[in-house]
Structures are given as structure tokens and as C-alpha cells.
């Protein structure tokens, strides 16, 4: 028997399995920045406000001066934003804010509704501003669709890394070899250990190997191979930019090729409920989607307390998290 159930080519966004909704991987080689944290490069010819596709190695996305995603609403799910390189400025409709990156993770529960912006300020004026991060959308069960919005920072130093031979495993969620990831958001599907939610980034040295262990219970497990050259699993070779759906009841030995490899693993017990999605809203029925749109038109999920929809924090500001209750946290 093989542990590889299905293989798909990676697209944008990456396809995921229940309880996840999708994953986007952003890798942008941004240039040096100006004093106002905009790119020190011409923006001529870009479709500003909807600039995707990495022309010249980077995108503005929905940003028109600073790259990123200006204020937009969410309801009914969570975002897990794991930054390997670069800096993200967060601002939201609850008055909360943060600056994080270079190994940090932000876990945000949209719940009953929140607006937030995610901007990528060009802080470096004397060198390039490279970014490399995932944003993973994790669904909420029906009973938690209307919980209060929440966000927390998992600072880099709090995230355990397990070294095993030629591999290193970084635990954003879940546990491995006795190491436990920081607690997820309190109303998350991942908060119940019985749901066996694991979010790992895995690096394997050239010609090294790593075994993903089998687990008890029913889970959906996906392995994303996005950097390297090729891997061998059970005698079959796979190139990069592949999503492999794995049988979690079996262990999977990954034998890496001649280049160091990078992987993301997403695993969890499926929620098993209907999914209705319209853009930034994820509910269980079309009626609930219509209600979400109506609520947003009426309330704007609390409004927008910042001067601009693409708010960035002062250049001199270091990493921080400001919570809705006024609590200020730094790494």
C-alpha cells in the first residue's frame, strides 16, 4: 500500500483539505524602500490595486503605494500567517495592530466579523526587502462562526523547531517528538487536541530524509513540496510544486533529492460541514453568506478606526502587538 493518495500541481491559491480552506504562498523580492516605505522602483505599467503575477519578481497586490492588502472584511474562519522573511503591518477594525515577521506567526479568528489590513512596508532603504510567507485559511465549525474576533502573535522564539537528522521541523500548530507548538486561538478547531491539527514547515537537507509518522484517528493530511528539485516516496519520484494528499494512518518516508527541500504540512480531523464561501466570508449556507454581506453593509464590522485603508506603522516602530483591550506586547 502507498501512503500517497493523490497528487496535484500547485496553483494559486494552493488547494487544501477540510478543515483548511486554502493556502497562499507569497514570495516577493521587493527592492529597497523609500523614506515613506514605498518601493524604490517605478510602478509604471502595473495594474495598481490588483497587481498580481510577480512582474519583475514582486507584486503590489491590492496596494497602490505600499504593497499589501488594504482594509477588507472576514467572517466565519481563521487566518494563520506564517512569515519566514519580511515584515507585515496589521491593523484592524477593533483598533488592534501589530508589526511582525522574520519567523513570527499571526493567528487571527475572524469569527462574527472583522476588517483588517495586511501591508508590507519597505523598511530597508539600503538593501532589498524580500518577503516569504504563507497565509493559511482554517475553517471554523458552525458553533464557532460567530465567536468574538481574536488575534494573537506567536513570536519566533516561542515556536519550537525539532532537528532530526537532516531535517528540521517547525511547529506552528500541533506537536512532535514531545515538543508542543504555542497555543492556537481559543475558539479554533485546532484548540481541541482531539482534532489533531498540525501545521509544520519542514526543511530537508540535500540527499537527506524525513519520516512523517502515522497517527491514530481520521485526518486529512497534505504535504506541499515547493522548493528543491525532487523527492522520492516509496520508489516514486515527484518534482517541485506538488501537493501530495497522504494517508495519515501510514507513515511517509520522504527521501530528498540533490537540493535542500522546503515543505509545508497541513493536517487535521475534518469538520465535515457544508462550506459556503463568497470572497472573504465562509459560512455553512448561501443564506448565511447573504446575511454576512448585509451585516457588513450595515455595520462595517465595527468601522475602520485608522486614517487610511492601507495603514502602515511608523518606520521606527519595532515588532509589537497591540490588542483590542489596550494590552501592548513585544517579542
From TrEMBL:
Pfam name, any one: Pirin_C
Chain ranges of the Pirin C-terminal domain: 200-302
Family: Belongs to the pirin family.
Top-rank lineage group of the source organism: Bacteria
Classification via Gene3D superfamilies: Jelly Rolls
Residue ranges constituting the Pirin N-terminal domain according to the UniProt record: 65-138
Organism of provenance: Portibacter lacus
Positions in coiled-coil regions: none
Biological classification of the source: Bacteria, Pseudomonadati, Bacteroidota, Saprospiria, Saprospirales
PANTHER family registered for this protein in UniProt: PIRIN, PIRIN-RELATED
Protein name as annotated: Pirin
Amino acid at each position: 500500500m502507498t501512503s500517497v493518495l493523490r497528487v496535484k500541481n500547485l496553483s494559486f491559491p494552493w488547494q487544501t483539505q477540510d478543515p483548511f480552506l486554502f493556502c497562499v504562498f507569497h514570495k516577493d523580492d521587493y527592492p529597497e524602500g523609500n523614506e515613506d516605505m514605498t518601493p524604490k522602483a517605478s510602478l509604471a505599467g502595473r495594474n495598481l490595486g490588483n497587481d498580481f503575477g510577480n512582474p519583475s519578481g514582486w507584486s503590489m497586490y491590492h496596494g497602490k503605494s505600499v504593497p499589501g492588502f488594504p482594509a477588507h472584511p472576514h467572517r466565519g474562519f481563521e487566518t494563520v500567517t506564517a512569515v519566514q522573511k519580511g515584515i507585515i503591518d496589521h491593523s484592524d477594525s477593533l483598533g488592534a495592530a501589530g508589526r511582525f515577521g522574520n519567523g513570527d506567526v499571526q493567528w487571527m479568528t475572524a469569527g462574527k466579523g472583522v476588517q483588517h489590513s495586511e501591508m508590507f512596508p519597505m523598511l530597508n532603504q539600503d538593501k532589498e526587502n524580500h518577503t516569504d510567507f504563507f497565509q493559511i485559511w482554517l475553517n471554523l465549525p458552525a458553533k464557532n462562526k460567530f465567536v468574538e474576533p481574536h488575534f494573537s502573535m506567536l513570536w519566533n522564539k516561542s515556536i519550537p523547531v525539532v532537528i532530526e537528522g537532516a531535517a528540521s521541523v517547525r511547529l506552528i500548530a500541533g506537536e512532535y517528538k514531545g515538543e508542543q507548538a504555542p497555543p492556537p486561538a481559543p475558539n479554533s478547531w485546532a484548540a481541541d487536541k482531539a482534532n489533531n491539527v498540525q501545521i509544520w514547515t519542514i526543511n530537508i537537507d540535500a540527499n537527506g530524509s524525513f519520516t512523517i509518522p502515522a497517527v491514530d484517528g481520521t485526518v486529512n493530511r497534505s504535504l506541499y513540496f515547493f522548493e528543491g528539485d525532487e523527492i522520492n516516496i516509496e520508489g516514486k519520484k515527484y518534482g517541485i510544486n506538488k501537493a501530495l494528499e497522504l494517508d495519515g494512518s501510514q507513515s511517509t518516508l520522504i527521501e530528498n533529492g540533490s537540493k535542500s527541500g522546503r515543505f509545508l504540512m497541513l493536517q487535521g480531523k475534518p469538520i465535515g460541514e457544508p462550506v459556503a464561501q463568497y470572497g472573504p466570508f465562509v459560512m455553512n449556507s448561501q443564506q448565511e453568506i447573504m446575511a454576512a454581506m448585509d451585516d457588513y453593509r450595515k455595520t462595517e464590522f465595527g468601522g475602520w478606526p485608522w486614517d487610511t485603508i492601507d495603514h502602515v506603522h511608523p518606520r521606527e516602530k519595532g515588532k509589537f502587538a497591540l490588542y483590542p483591550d489596550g494590552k501592548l506586547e513585544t517579542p
